[in-house]
Write a structure and sequence with these properties.
The chain is about 45% helix and about 15% strand. With about 250 residues, it is α/β, with parallel strands linked by helices.
């Protein structure tokens, strides 16, 4: 039976390319982060309305967070219901991207999704070192995604080893949290590493969503190569800091 769904993920785990690719399927409408604090999302027409504008730091940011927690608590579950009831042309299956941080900020949304037994595409990255490194590199270069068909040159950047190690530790906990909170739900777990066999990975999702299996190219290109060392200036420093705990991620 066809069913609506959502993608549950952490940053830099492939959720953007998966969202945009699924949206190109003739039976699937897939939006980006409905609960992103800005409307710079995929399908901005479905962006949840926030009260005020998010500031980078300070008291005004705390006010923004508190106000929109109340906003979300009152209105967000109804907004999700409206999203799933709507139809885009003749596409019978609808989904959107929910980041792990949205669960804490919008608890009524999470309650709604669980109560209605929506299908969940759980997207995690086994190699959290590469996940963390991808985030650091993106912030340094300003290149978070590359359009399909474009050729990108991998720029070497300096990455603070201690900060990188802390982020890997955090992502290990986040990965486990995503798996734990989705346990028992109607889910399929996809590892980012499965993207290497792209069509096979998509076919698993098509079967899960009960839609037609068709060949599809990724909607976006990777911004880094397979060898992480090619894009980092201080390779030896990073290896020294991570070797004891995360040596299995380095090669």
């Amino acid at each position: 039976m066809k069913s609506n769904f959502f993608i549950l993920s952490a940053p830099r785990s492939g959720s953007t390319v998966l969202t945009r690719t699924l949206d190109q399927h003739p039976e699937i409408f897939c939006a980006g982060e409905l609960f992103h604090p800005t409307d710079k999302i995929y399908h901005p027409e479905w962006h949840f309305h926030f009260w005020g504008k998010k500031k980078k730091k300070g008291f005004s940011r705390k006010i923004f967070s508190a106000a929109n927690y109340v906003n979300g608590y009152i209105f967000a579950a109804g907004y999700i219901k409206k999203f799933y009831v709507a139809r885009k042309g003749n596409k019978p299956v609808r989904g959107f991207k929910l980041m792990i941080g949205h669960i804490k900020d919008f608890p009524t949304v999470w309650k709604y999704l669980r109560q209605h037994n929506l299908k969940v595409i759980v997207l995690v990255r086994k190699n959290t070192f590469r996940e963390a490194l991808s985030s650091f590199r993106a912030r340094k270069t300003g290149l978070f995604h590359a359009q399909a068909g474009t050729i990108t040159t991998e720029e070497k950047v300096y990455v603070n080893p201690s900060s990188l190690k802390r982020r890997v530790d955090q992502l290990e906990a986040i990965k486990q949290s995503i798996l734990n909170i989705s346990e028992g739900m109607n889910r399929i777990v996809i590892n980012y590493e499965e993207f290497a066999a792209w069509q096979s990975m998509l076919n698993k999702i098509f079967a899960f969503l009960d839609v037609k299996e068709i060949n599809m190219e990724p909607a976006l290109n990777k911004t880094s190569g397979d060898d992480w060392r090619q894009g980092v200036e201080n390779v030896e420093e990073i290896e020294d800091v991570l070797r004891d705990t995360y040596a299995h991620y380095l090669d």
